Amino acid sequence: MVFVTVELLLVTISLLSIIYYYKWLTCYFDFWKIRNVNGPKPIPLLGNVLDLVTFKYSIGCFLRKIYNEYNNEKIVGLFVNRRPALMINDMDLIKSILIKDFSSFMDRGYGTHEKTDPLTMHLFNLEPARWRPLRAKLTPAFTSGKLREMFYLLIECSDQLDNYLNKYNGQIVNMREISFKFTIDVIGTCVFGLQANALNDPDSPFKIMSKKIFDPNWKNLLNFSLRCFTPRYFYDLIGNLLTDYELPNFFINLTKNTIDYRIKNNITKHDFVDQLKMLKEDPSKLGDIEVTDNFLAAQLFVFFIAGHETSASLISNCLLELAMNHKIQEKLRKEINDELEKSNGKITYQGIKNMFYLDKIFKETIRKYPPVTEIMRVSTTAYTFPDTNISIPENTITWIPIFGIHHDPKYYPDPDKFDPERFSDEVIRSRHPMSFLGFGDGPRNCIGARFGKMQTKVGIVKILEKYTVDICDKTDKNFEIDPHGFLLTPVNGVYLKLIKAPIV
Q1: Domains of the chain: which residue ranges?
Q2: What is the DSSP string of 402-424?
Q3: Residue 173 DSSP SS3
Q4: What is the DSSP string of 176-225?
């Protein structure tokens, strides 16, 4: 009888515990319901992010799927674990978040982990208090004037690309790999003031570090999941077990040695490193922010990964579309030829600016293959969305689904078709300005947009100046996206046939 009583007591305690923890795990799940916001049903512990933590979808494809399912909703309610989040589908509300009411959404919400991963202290991640003064000090490095000054460096790198391509005439190449090597060399030269030599040296340390960053191995994927979907204290506790310290040590030592060398030898190159050198020599320019070697290295790190990966993807994806659309390719090559004739066969800064059809192609490539597939903001105040009765508290995750918007037939009819004329002046005026967010918008948009645009265009022009690209048996015309990739990574690369055909 005593044993039966004990067993009943244990069963009762177990059931009550299960009920308690189930209630604890799901107690916030009526958050959107009471606000009359629709969204997919969450599950205990994970909320709506099961497909993300299991890598069934990349973040861009995940949000695009929900965007398509709830296309008629202005706001979609979601949960990241137990934490309420939302996705914004309405163009006017997106404009409010990014521009009109930016002061309530200044934080990207990714957070920094100075001790566990010092390279997270970069401009993209920083909280508003450090982001604002740092952005103001780094912006001068990316003005159109600075870009014009360093344009000759871009041309030097493009000439190296031209020499590299000579040996591949008539062959099938992975244009994504070639584009990566080219943009690594550009970033090494224009941002670090160093020769990365990724095109010609298979052991280039810059190329090796890039592979470490973007390799979707289990360690990188687990690190990403824990940082995004577990409490901050938990990641700070165990994150150092997953951090490959060869990566931060490389960038920290490189930054310190480069800046110290310039200070010691009184060297000025008017580039990005000079902006960091100025901050190291006079930290008071950033107020109370502690300017350490780690902090400066994090800034170089983010411009390395953002500057070369996004542009490399745009170059290879653009060439993929041109290989499948020969008429567009021929029209662009004619425009390139016309501009080169005006400058004795030389690629010039103004010549690139004058290639208006190239600009349309560039924007259509970003539209179809956005280098950043979503924008995340976290509310820094309690906020009520304009013309609604929907209010959110401080610290609410807000997603803007760029990939979904860019493929919405409301804004881009037949969205899978590659059509540069979507970006004629007349057609652009017919669309809401927030329907194209290739570089974000508002005060926290991409600081390096001008540089990325010019780098990409120079790469495309240099290739098409002497070569045509065509599809082959290895070309994945459907562009299957790797769900393990952090961005829009093609599973099968971008294989094209390269044929020498100088423009005449």
Answers
A1: 31-500
A2: HHHHHT-TTTSSSTTS--GGGGS
A3: strand
A4: HHHHHHHHHHHHHHHTSSS---TTT-TT-HHHHHHHHHH---HHHHHHHH
SS3 77: strand
First to last CA, the chain: 100
- Vertex 75: Cα angle to 70 and 78 (nearest 5): 80
- Tokens 């390395």 locate to 304
> What would the two tokens of residue 326 be?
């020969």
Return the CATH fold of 31-500: Cytochrome p450 (1.10.630)
Low-confidence ranges of the chain (pLDDT < 50): 16-25
Instruction: Report which residue type is found at 474.
Output: K
Beta strands in 367-415 (DSSP E): 375-378, 383-384, 391-392, 397-400
Question: Are 108 and 124 spatial neighbours (Cβ–Cβ below 8 Å)?
Answer: yes
Q: What is the pTM of this model?
A: 0.90
Residues 309-363: tens digit of each pLDDT: 999 999 999 999 999 999 999 999 999 999 999 999 999 999 999 999 999 999 9
- Do 142 and 439 touch, CB atoms closer than 8 A? no
pLDDT of the residue at 153: 92
> Would you call 197 helix, strand, or coil by DSSP?
coil
Phi, psi of 269 (to 5 degrees): -120, 0
Tell me what pLDDT residue 218 has. 72
> Which secondary structure element, helix H or strand E, spans residue 253, and what is its range?
helix 246-265
Q: Give 391's strand partners.
A: 384
